[in-house]
Specification:
The complex is a heterodimer.
Chain A (H helix, E strand, L loop, with lengths): L1 H49 L7 H13 L12 H32 L1 H14 L8 H8 L2 H26 L3 H9 L4 H39 L4 H10 L3 H33 L4
Helix pairs in contact in A: 2-10, 3-4, 3-6, 3-8, 3-9, 5-6, 6-8, 8-9, 8-10, 9-10
Chain B lengths: L1 H14 L8 E12 L2 E13 L4 E5 L6 H9 L6 E6 L2 E2 L7 E4 L11 H12 L5 H14 L15 H14 L4 E5 L7 H17 L5 E6 L2 H7 L2 E5 L7 E6 L8 H5 L2 H15 L1
Parallel strand pairs in B: 3-8, 3-9, 6-7, 7-8
Antiparallel strand pairs in B: 1-2, 1-4, 4-5, 9-10
Helix pairs in contact in B: 3-4, 3-5, 4-5, 5-6
The chains are: A mainly alpha, B alpha/beta.
Protein name (chain A): Nitrate ABC transporter permease
GO biological process, one term (chain A): monoatomic ion transport
Keywords (chain A): Cell inner membrane, Cell membrane, Ion transport, Membrane, Transmembrane, Transmembrane helix, Transport
Chain lengths: 282, 276
């Protein structure tokens, strides 16, 4: 009897300890987030009070958000589509524009990073074009493409160019001299140099550029779709404002924010994976 | 192995007639680097002739330009004055004929040990079939004792093992001349000792890589490995102070050598030469 008492509780004890341990870890991770969210919600509630009902309360927004998410993919014609369809439309444009943008920026950045002469020629052009607000390109896209959604994609392409171009150039420019010397001594072909030395060496910088490009593209898409109309989260925000439903505007803002966060996390996860792989992990 | 070693000893003295064309001929070479408005002179009036089959060490204080000279032989740095002729042709660009082992290994960190060697073999040994290239890669990695580590990444290896990979990579392209830039400078004394012996072993066992030029800080290393030691004066504007012939028979046994009179004389001579 004495033995049983001795043995059984000890096992339970260890299971309990490990559960307590995990609960503690989860609580330590989540509690600051929850507290932060509570502070935001109370500030928001206060602002809604002070605005005298012009700003929707968090509770009103939450119930609208639940309603929107309950049927995200309904389609009742051109001006009445579910939030999921709008989100996918925006994501589709962002990825198309961003994809074209980085497909131009990465090879161009590799060239610029490899040639100081080319850098001197192209740098002033980039410095002039880079600070231009992405939406300033929208009319140009409209004039050439005669299509509002495509013009938005065009603006995203231009937007996505700069961070990736600048970071790729820097990454290639700072490839260690020793590695360049190795490629020369062992007479690496251009292709071998690019695939085995240049791209892996510059990859962290290129990934940072791609991440920054994606961040800006996601900001620009909402503004662009407000101008272009039709579909997308930007259109949804503007349409909701015209229908005087600020609850829907706030809901859309939350969705835009969370999607942006997820996209960013995706890239940082990819970056960590690549770094681990380069150092011989898995 | 032994007959091969004996054969090498005789290369310098007997087989090669004195009038044989040297492998490398450096005459009147100088190096200037731009600095501010003017130029700063690193090296001046370097005269050095290296015969095929020799093991040469460059020794001198930091900043004396010995690494610069090695880089110029490699073709990685341009010469400012003078001429540098390798195997009858002026040196204009890097070439696998003058393969280099760098102080900090210079392995590609994202490639495995095997791939690091294979990329060099695949790039240079174009007359070999794919199977032969793979066999060669396996063989050189086995020679430096890394057969069990071929799938590891450089970051997972110790400094000594990384430098073994770099040495294997250089030998795998069968260079006429092997250039080593302080190859063991970053290693502990024990690892350094065993790598010195492995280097000698590879050099004497490989009929194609006849000539070695090595930059070093270490007097004992220079004596143990070299046929001739090139002593540099202090920089800037350094030049060759003297060239010492190491008249010790090969194969050399470190332990018995270190107690010999010749060794001590050379050591004292070098110490004095470097400290005045």
């Amino acid at each position: 009897m004495a033995q049983m008492i001795d043995i059984i509780p000890r096992r339970e004890h260890s299971a309990l300890t490990s559960m307590r341990y995990w609960l503690k870890i989860i609580w330590q991770t989540l509690s600051p987030i929850i507290i932060g969210m509570l502070i935001l919600a109370s500030l928001w509630q206060g602002a809604a009070w002070l605005s005298g009902g012009n700003l929707p309360t968090p509770f009103a927004t939450a119930s609208t958000l639940r309603e929107l998410l309950s049927d995200p993919f309904y389609d009742n014609g051109p001006n009445d589509k579910g939030i999921g369809i709008q989100l996918l439309a925006s994501l589709g444009r962002v990825f198309t524009g961003w994809g074209i943008g980085i497909a131009i920026a990465i090879p161009l950045g590799m060239l610029l990073g490899s040639s100081a002469r080319l850098r001197k020629m192209i740098a002033p052009v980039i410095e002039i074009l880079r600070p231009v607000s992405p939406l300033a390109w929208y009319p140009l896209g409209l004039a050439v493409l005669h299509n509002a959604p495509k013009a938005v994609v065009f603006a995203i392409v231009i937007t996505s160019l700069w961070p990736t171009l600048v970071n790729t150039t820097m990454g290639v420019q700072h490839i260690p001299a020793d590695l360049k010397a190795v490629s020369k001594v062992f007479r690496f072909s251009r292709w071998r140099y690019v695939s085995k030395v240049l791209l892996p060496a510059a990859f962290p910088a290129i990934l940072t550029g791609m991440r920054l490009s994606m961040g800006i593209a996601w900001m620009v898409i909402v503004a662009g779709e407000m101008l272009a109309g039709g579909t997308g989260l930007g259109f949804f925000v503007w349409d909701s404002w015209n229908a005087l439903s600020l609850e829907r505007v706030m809901s859309a803002i939350l969705i835009i924010g969370i999607t942006g966060l997820c996209l960013d996390r995706l890239f940082s996860l990819l970056g960590q994976r690549m770094a681990a792989w380069q150092e011989g992990g898995h | 192995m032994a007959p091969r070693l004996l054969a090498r000893t005789s290369v310098n003295s007997a087989i090669l007639p004195m009038e044989a064309a040297p492998l490398l001929e450096i005459s009147g070479v100088g190096k200037n680097y731009p600095s501010g408005q003017g130029q700063i002179n690193i090296l001046r009036e370097i005269e050095l002739t290296i015969q095929s089959g020799e093991f040469i060490s460059f020794i001198g204080h930091s900043g004396c330009g010995k690494s610069s000279l090695l880089n110029m032989i490699a073709g990685l740095t341009s010469i400012s004055t003078g001429t540098m002729v390798f195997d009858g042709k002026p040196i204009e660009a890097p070439s696998p004929e003058r393969a280099m082992v760098f102080q900090h290994y210079s392995l590609l960190p994202w490639l495995s040990v095997y791939q690091n060697v294979y990329e060099a073999v695949d790039s240079v040994q174009t007359e070999l079939s794919k199977a032969e290239r793979k066999a060669l890669t396996d063989a050189v990695l086995a020679r430096v004792g890394l057969s069990n580590h071929v799938h590891k990444k450089p970051m997972q290896l110790s400094g000594g093992m990384r430098q073994r990979v770099a040495i294997a990579r250089a030998f795998a392209v069968h260079p006429r001349m092997l250039l080593l830039d302080e190859p063991f400078g970053a290693l502990d004394a024990l690892t350094r000792g065993s790598l010195q012996e492995e280097l000698l072993d590879l050099w004497s066992g490989d009929a194609r890589t006849e000539t070695v030029v090595m930059v070093t800080h270490d007097i004992d290393e220079a004596i143990y490995l070299s046929d001739r030691i090139v002593v540099f004066s202090d920089g800037p504007s350094a030049t060759i102070k003297e060239i010492i012939t190491v008249d010790l028979p090969r194969p050399r046994d470190k332990q018995s050598l270190m107690t010999s009179q010749t060794w001590n004389n050379l050591r004292t001579h070098l110490l004095l030469s470097l400290h005045c």
